[in-house]
Amino acid sequence: MGRFSSIHRTRGYKVFECATNYASGQLHGYRWMYAKCRENGLRVRKEDVRLVLKELDPRGVSSRQAGRLRRRRYFSRRPNFIWHLDSYHKLKPYGICINGCIDGFSRKIVWLNAYTTSSDPKLIGGYYMEAVQRLKGCPRVVRGDLGTENGYVRGFQRFLVSTHQEDTLDSYLEGASTANQRIEYWWGFLRRQCMEFWISLFADLRDNGLFDGGFLDKNLLQFCCMGLIQDELDDTSQVWDAHTIRPSRNSREQPVARPATEESPAKETKLVLSMVWWFPCGSSKTEPECPEKSFSG
User: Which segments carry the region annotation Disordered (predicted)?
Assistant: First the structure.
């Protein structure tokens, strides 16, 4: 008990302060909180963070320990071979729509934006083109759902990465949103780490008669909360891209490293997770050459 008291005095309050920077910090598990501490310059042990959270938030620890998800097998050839994009609709009844895209191999967040709509194909197409311009390349494949909001992305992708008749894989794939595995899993992660707070807050406003779903109420929430939610999305994606991905039991081919690193630590993986395989705009190549710098060691 004396050891834990020392930990609590020297490090616990710093961890608690980091947890309460945002109201949704109460949803974080000890691994995610450890990553946030490292991002904020706090040099703490993961075990110390676990003990502090267990003492400060026993109810949250118990709720996170209940139940485990049995995942399907997933495989992607390399970084930027496939991007998964989708919209998150849990806040849509309150006038806030979230759209995101994730790289299938490295699990790096390509974009994550909140706006008043996610049904405008010009808006989603703009997200895609901004990412292509920022990263100076496009993926081999984009996976989206069957909605009309992805019409511009489909056209842009098929124009930038043309395919031949003998190609068995189209440059744009579409299907049911629930089968878009990478991004659907990440939406669950996003809800656990920050969106659950906002969903509960807005639901309380509605249940107490303070939100009727009208134009004025939606605009008030957008004016007051849109910037805060976008800040949390940026913070979540930043910490996600900096955290170390744990080994997957379902796939030995998936890397164990940080999504945003340009050079993989030798102890973690020999695969580089930075965006090094690219299709230049207008290229019709189906298999780009693998540059020598893409491997370390």
Answer: 245-267
Do residues 172 and 153 lie in contact, with contact meaning Cβ atoms separated by under 8 Å? yes
Residue 238, Cβ density class (10 Å: 0-12 exposed, 13-18 middle, ≥19 buried): middle
What CA–CA distance (Å, rounded) separates 118 from 97? 6
Please tell me whether residues 43 and 171 are part of one structural domain: no
**295 is a domain residue:** no
DSSP designation for 64? H
Residues 16 and 119 occupy one common structural domain: no
Find out whether 105 and 48 touch, Cβ atoms under 8 Å: no
pLDDT in tens, 47-81: 888 888 888 877 777 777 765 544 556 667 788 88
Beta bridge partners of 172: 142
Name every residue whose Cβ is closer than 8 Å to that of residue 195 and which is 6 or more positions away in sequence. 24, 88, 90, 91
> Which domain range does residue 172 map to?
82-242
CA-wise closest residue to 141 among 90, 82, 193: 82
Q: Which two tokens stand for residue 295?
A: 């491997």
Q: How far apart are the first and last CA of the chain?
A: 45
> Both 15 and 139 in a single domain?
no
Same domain, 157 and 11: no
Pairwise CA distance, residues 172 & 76, whole Å: 15
Question: Whole-model pTM?
Answer: 0.64
